[in-house]
Amino acid sequence: MTNDRRRILAVDDEEDILEILSFNLSGEGYKVDTCISAEEALRKDLSGYDLFLLDVMLGPISGFKLAEKIRKELALTTPVIFLTARDSENDRITGFNLGADDYLAKPFSIRELSARVKAILRRSSPEQVTMATVAGDFTVDTANKLIYSESVPLELTRKEYEILALFICNAGKIFSRNDILSKVWGDEVIVTVRTVDVTIARIRKKMGEKGNMIKNKSGYGYYFGD
Amino acid sequence: MTNDRRRILAVDDEEDILEILSFNLSGEGYKVDTCISAEEALRKDLSGYDLFLLDVMLGPISGFKLAEKIRKELALTTPVIFLTARDSENDRITGFNLGADDYLAKPFSIRELSARVKAILRRSSPEQVTMATVAGDFTVDTANKLIYSESVPLELTRKEYEILALFICNAGKIFSRNDILSKVWGDEVIVTVRTVDVTIARIRKKMGEKGNMIKNKSGYGYYFGD
DNA sequence: TATATTTGTAACAATTTTGTAACCTGAATG
DNA sequence: CATTCAGGTTACAAAATTGTTACAAATATA
Would B107 be classed as within a structural domain? Predict the structure, then answer.
């Protein structure tokens, strides 16, 4: 029933390149969609892909810009390989800052392309699997970054989602404010510990009467449970 | 030198499933041990594993029961994934109350399994420095800062936990009030020595009839024992 | 750039934990 | 038999922790 063929989206403004990519990667067993522009790509549901192949030089919206949108606005961690004729050190750095997983300069051999695609899909595949963790009436859909309360999705911001997902996926486990800060905000970012309290208050409010499922054990931290 | 391969224990009453699990997870680089029953699992030293995969439906001792024993009697916080054909909401809740980290309904794809195993091991690995010390019917779980009395966690505040943990982990050793003050409150904080008496009275009350296991030797101090 | 949304902070209220003093008990002492 | 002393207990006060609100800063969006 489940089709586990990997889906790849290739975006390039040259029809020829798209054909070459599509033909060859399809032959390797991948399901390949193509777009002739970033705009066209953005109209699609990008969450279902396992890999993006992005040409850097696209019309008004460049491949870099598209990658940035994918990462930041759509919040997808799907791997990206940039295709480009430009090969300056500068471009490389920009690409990797946006979370590019690889970088392929045109002209490239199909053999090289498919090797990189395979390598990247192999190492990234596990996290692309939708993981639904359920506790009580709550379901965490990590692939789409959504949390459902009795089948209704909560309207959570990113930080709120991260915290609640952490709690639900570790129901019963107590997290101190610092645990939460390091897991959700990261270890470099410096914010007041009280930020955690305020964010949790916001989550509770959005959870309505279920808000009291986020418990606090004074002196220890917060946890999820009934 | 150090072998950092993660150790997984799979418990299932179907030989076939064990083989599939063992074969596939070994292929992913994990060290996999298998047991055909909960009883067999309980004869092993379970403290060395990084993850348990437990079938819910096992002979006399179910997977839930086994998980409960692992959590409460052995005081291990090792993550658990339940494998089961049963998929009712009821089962889910029971599983999460026991601290299941995930839940996988049979039949499951190996890909899905390995994704979840990887995800759980990644997030659980750093903090799993659980130290369980047992004395009498009491177990101290230093990782989660919990003390169990006959498998039931005591509702201790921070200071109360610190004192009781000190006593249990050094059962029989006598601590003067000043010993306790310097170990629990620290050397900078200045509080009355009688604070210790009051706090111990509070612990005793929360321990119920077991409260008399905290002894006092007049003129010397307090200690734990029967 | 203007506007909306998200995130961070500070201040204050509510709650929980901790500390103190006073009183009580019982054993040891004289 | 009164006195003293160590420890137990209680009630209340102080302090610490947590909850909440309003607003500022940062970020995203148009």
Answer: yes
- For chains A and B, CB pairs below 8 A equal 50
* Residue B97 pLDDT exceeds 60: no
**Contact (Cβ atoms closer than 8 angstroms) between residue B11 and residue B23:** no
A220 reaches B (C-beta below 8 A) = yes
Are residue B87 and residue B179 in the same domain, yes or no?
no
Picking from B74, B91, B124, the residue at the C-terminal end of a domain is B124
Find and give the residue nearest to D10, measured CA to C1'.
Answer: B198
Across A180-199, average pLDDT: 85
Q: Which ipTM value was assigned to this complex?
A: 0.56
Q: Searching chain A, which residue's CA lies closest to the CA of residue B113? A: A126
A112 with A162, same domain: the answer is no
C-alpha distance from A12 to closest chain B C-alpha (Å)? 31
Domain boundary (B105, B124, B143) is at B124
Give the domain extent around A169: 132-224
pLDDT-derived band of residue B118, with 50, 70 and 90 as boundaries?
Answer: low
Question: Helix, strand, or coil here: B190?
Answer: coil
Measured between CB atoms, which of B92, B127, B144 is closest to A134? B92
Beta-carbon separation of A126 and B145 below 8 A:
no
A149 near B CB under 8 A: no
CATH number at residue A167: 1.10.10.10
CB B102 within 8 A of CB B96: no
pLDDT digits (tens, 9 = 90+) for A5-45: 688 999 998 887 888 788 778 767 788 899 998 888 888 88
If we measure between CA atoms, which residue out of A46, A8, A39 comes closest to residue A24? A8
Residue B90 burial class via C-beta count within 10 angstroms: exposed 0-12, middle 13-18, buried 19 and up: exposed
